[in-house]
Amino acid sequence: MPATRNTLLKDYFTFSKKERRAVILLAVLAIIFSLLPTLFPVLVKGESDFIVDEETQQQLAAMRTNEKEAAAKEDDEQNGDWYQPKSKSYPQYSSGEKGELFFFDPNNASAEEWKRLGVKDKTIQTILKFRSKGGSFKKPEDISRIYGLSVKDIDRLLPFVKIEKEQPVTTTNNSEQTTVSTTESKPVFSEKRSKPIDINTADTAEWKSLKGIGSFYAKKIVGFRDKLGGFYSVQQVAETFGLPDSTFQTIKPFLLVNTSAVKQINLNTATAEELKAHPYIKGTIANAIINYRTNHGNFSSVEQLQNIGAIDEDLYRKIAPYLTIK
After folding, report:
1. Which residue of 74, 116, 222, 228 is most buried, as measured by CB atoms within 10 A?
2. Model confidence over 248-258: pLDDT tens digits?
3. pTM for this one?
4. Which domains does the chain have, with CATH numbers?
């Protein structure tokens, strides 16, 4: 009887070869998972501790823009136009915007000032580390090169960037000149002398000749113009996403428009996809136009669009210049 009891105990507490392997595997996995929280920060450390070069910055900006426009275009199917309308009834910054807004120099702004501006702590550390290694911002648009600073924050902060300018000053003791930093009382773009430009043919270089327009906004304006197929009104420039109304009002007197350059879509041959590609025409409107054409035959005039219930008077006035009958 005792022998039988010992045999039962041995069978109960002894693992088979397969069971021993399973126990070892579980123990290894448990150790790995317990170490992951410690190892993960080490593996990703340094990912954001740099400011990208110009070429990489442009690629990142393009990727961010494409992602933003794609998401906005998808939302457009339900909520309306993807672009940012500008009028006196739409303030540039809503009361719910994150962070304060004040003029600052990114070359000497303290961590506390960046914090007040609404910049994330991790991004602030990236900026401080960049400056500690001798990096500097030469022009306002350089803040768009900061890794981790969102497009929304760039748009919000860019109008308030004011770079200190180094000026030679003659000392009283000798004729040698020493360089000191003095903060200009006016925005850095105040020295530009603007000349009128044609908003439908001007390239980014011509846009940059206007006060308040750097590479960042020049590319945005030209990109918006190309998606529209050209501007038929100077006021449309104000619809460029992120462009401050104060900047638009500054450049408005120097903007000319030649509507002959506007590209038009043939209502009788356009597909729903071609219509939806236009910023002013969302998916539901494009489908309504195609359905009307299918049920009533080809359009004889652009004015027939007013017979479509989904197209109100305001929308008709916006899209009519981009449509034609051939």
Report:
1. 228
2. 999 999 999 98
3. 0.46
4. 92-189 (1.10.150.320), 192-261 (1.10.150.320), 265-324 (1.10.150.280)
